[in-house]
Amino acid sequence: MAYGQTGSGKTYTMIGSENNPGIAPRAFQRLFQLVEAGHSRHSVLASAYMMELYNDKLIDLFRPPGNTDNEKLDIKKDKKGSVHVQGATVCSVSSAGELTRAFKQGLTNRHTAATKMNVESSRSHLIIVVCLNITSKQTGSVLKGKLTLVDLAGSERVSKSGATADQLREANSINKSLSALGDVVSALSSESSFVPYRYVLTSLHHSDL
Ligand SMILES: Nc1ncnc2c1ncn2[C@@H]1O[C@H](COP(=O)(O)OP(=O)(O)OP(=O)(O)O)[C@@H](O)[C@H]1O
């Protein structure tokens, strides 16, 4: 999870450039290297979904072109307590290259805008989830793994970023959600008996958790 002030280099660190790939493409490369190395023992099915949280709303970044209907995305918790997003477009991927291409395509749907602090400032929190279903060729047992990478939008002082109108709304949403996330991390790290997850979820307008 990349967290920090606007313009500090989060997106660059996560995505990188053509000549200097960031954490995401490097992680995808490594993941599929490991899949390949275990090829004789396991068969692996990999898939991914990608979304952004923009102005407190979840948006599917893998949605088919022309489809702007995002109302169906819903955060759900299964019986085992693991959280997933219902309604997100899930892409099956079989190589790091395929996953990286899907990721880059998803990025073109992300909300960005020029501010006084960053010519290409992320206006949303970006989340990509890579899911692996690993079946043992010997026993048939199945293991499930999940890698989640997050490029948060940066905290910003509106007086410095020069945000007005829509950008001001974005900045308020970004700052509010980062503050809620900070409260969760702080409660977890101090092993507090109460962790305010629900505050974050309330701000997402999801009441079903
Ligand atoms: N290590 C680096 N090498 C070269 N350029 C960098 C590096 N880190 C950041 N930059 C450049 O600095 C600028 C700001 O970086 P970036 O967009 O990653 O910031 P950010 O923290 O994601 O900002 P925001 O929160 O506004 O989205 C970009 O033009 C980016 O290309």
Description:
The chain is α+β, with helices and mostly antiparallel strands. It has a single domain (10-203), classed as Kinesin motor domain (Kinesin, 3-Layer(aba) Sandwich). It has helices at 10-15, 23-37, 96-107, 158-161, 165-189, 197-203, and strands at residues 42-54, 57-60, 74-77, 83-86, 91-93, 112-113, 121-122, 125-136, 142-151. The longest helix has 25 residues, at 165-189. It starts with 9 loop residues before the first helix and ends in a 6-residue tail after the last helix. Residues 4, 6-12, 118, 120-122, 153-154 line the site of adenosine-5'-triphosphate.
Rg over CA atoms, rounded to whole Å, is 18 Å
Structural class category = alpha+beta
Classify the beta-strand content into a percent band: 25-35%
Bound molecules: adenosine-5'-triphosphate
Q: Helix and strand string, N-terminal first?
A: HHEEEEEHEEEEHHH
